[in-house]
Design goal:
The chain is mostly helical. It is globular.
């Protein structure tokens, strides 16, 4: 009985702290939610640009990190595998810029992995927020993220660029909506 009372007190305290935090920073959460929704809409409107931008950005990051790693490896006279790793980054980054379609295929695989993990982490986060009113919005977003990840896995490798961009757009919009709905519910008077 004592354990149950302690757990109830702790969950009530946790709920109160989370809700207080959300009320105090309501505008920041709403802004973040609107920003995610706006980015999701933009990704849906410009699917080819979204997919190619992701490919190009990853390619550029790989090349830059590879060059930086190469400079450090040569300056520090590091082991051969550090130089090999730098060369691998530069090579993959260059291939992504040179052959975007192959890069996009690799990105589809990475996004499927990412969305699977993100959906699982969103489920855990939703479970942690279960003491907050309207936490089910976050649970809903997590389930949709997992469904979209499953669709990526099932449709792989026949997915096209448009579908990839729409998956990203839906994920961004749902996360933004879940933030806004939680803040809205926490800020409204208790029913």
């Amino acid at each position: 009985m004592l354990f149950t009372e302690t757990v109830m007190i702790n969950t009530d305290t946790l709920r109160a702290r989370i809700e207080q935090e959300m009320r105090e920073h309501k505008n920041k959460y709403i802004f973040q939610g609107i920003l995610f929704i706006a980015l999701g809409i933009l990704a849906a409107i410009l699917p080819v640009a979204t997919a190619l931008s992701v490919d190009l950005l990853i390619g550029i990051v790989l090349i830059m990190s590879g060059v930086f790693q190469m400079v450090l490896a040569l300056k520090a006279k590091m082991h051969w595998w550090s130089i090999f790793s730098a060369l691998l980054s530069i090579t993959v980054g260059t291939m992504m810029l040179w052959k975007p379609s192959a890069g996009l295929l690799a990105i589809v695989t990475l996004i499927a992995i990412f969305m699977t993990l993100e959906g699982l982490f969103e489920l855990l986060l939703a479970w942690q927020f279960r003491f907050v009113r309207s936490w089910r919005w976050m649970l809903f977003a997590a389930i949709i993220t997992l469904v979209l990840a499953a669709i990526l896995w099932i449709g792989f490798p026949t997915l096209d660029i448009v579908y990839l961009a729409l998956v990203i757009a839906i994920n961004l919009c749902l996360y933004g909506l879940s933030l806004i709905m939680m803040v809205r519910r926490v800020s409204s008077p208790t029913p």
